[in-house]
Amino acid sequence: MKHFTLVTTFVCMLSGCQTAYYSAMEKVGIHKREILVDRVEATKESQQESQQEFQSALERLSTLINFDGGELQSAYEQLNDDYEASLASAEEVSVNINKVEDVAQALFDEWQDELTQYSSDKLKRESEKKLKQTQRQFDRLLRSMRSSESKMQPVLASLKDNVLYLKHNLNAQAIAAIRGEFKNLQTDIKTLIDDMNRSIADSNKFIEQMNSNK
Q: What is the per-residue pLDDT for 190?
């Protein structure tokens, strides 16, 4: 119970910080809609970077399983570096998606509250219709982002398994063992990259829609 209270307090503190941030930005003329577009753009860029890191790790592993003489320790260290870079990039993607979701919720809450302020029923209906349309567009985007995000963890787990196994078995037998796992990992990374490409395309479409509605 104590742990739950601490977590709840921490979440509330974060929420309060975000609320203060949005208020401060509005005072200088930057509104939640603009922040949302910027954060979707940042998430897209972090996904593109993550794609590169995962592809680099796959290429490194491919080189390793075709290893033909040389220093295995060095090859292992390079693969471990690629894994760590993939892990860091995946964490950045998750952080950015959370930020996107947070500002979107704040924007929609504010928009919903402002509907009560209209004196014109016609304008209120038009604004409400636009709100629902934007929410539907965002929900599609968020599902796309979360889908690609969910595929990162199995890939990271597989990469980590290979790195850990090689750490204590730097020999030809170890290379042969991970060679058998390579095809599955290759398929998983291709699926992940394809999913990220769909999410990136959805981000571009959402950004275009938001900018056209200014």
A: 93
The closest alpha carbon to 67, from 149, 145, 182, 155, belongs to 182
* pLDDT tens-digit map of 53-69: 999 999 988 888 887 66
Helices 72-114 and 121-150, packing angle to 10 deg: 160
Task: Give the C-alpha separation, 66 to 58, whole Å.
Answer: 13
Please give, one letter per residue, the 3-state secondary structure of 12-80: HHHHHHHHHHHHHHHHCCCCHHHHHHHHHHHHHHHHHHHHHHHHHHHHHHHHHHCCCCCCHHHHHHHHH
Task: At 201, give phi and psi (nearest 5°).
Answer: -65, -40
Alpha-carbon gap, residue 211 to 120, rounded angstroms: 26
191 CB contacts (<8 Å, ≥6 apart)?
151
The owner of tokens 């509005």 is 26
Q: Are 206 and 137 in contact (CB under 8 A)?
A: yes
Q: Helix, strand, coil % (nearest 5) of the chain?
A: 90, 0, 10
Predicted local distance difference test score (pLDDT) of residue 202 = 96
- Split at pLDDT 50, 70, 90, the class of 15 is low
Reported pTM:
0.86
- 93 Cβ contact list (under 8 Å, min separation 6): 43, 46, 47, 50, 149, 152
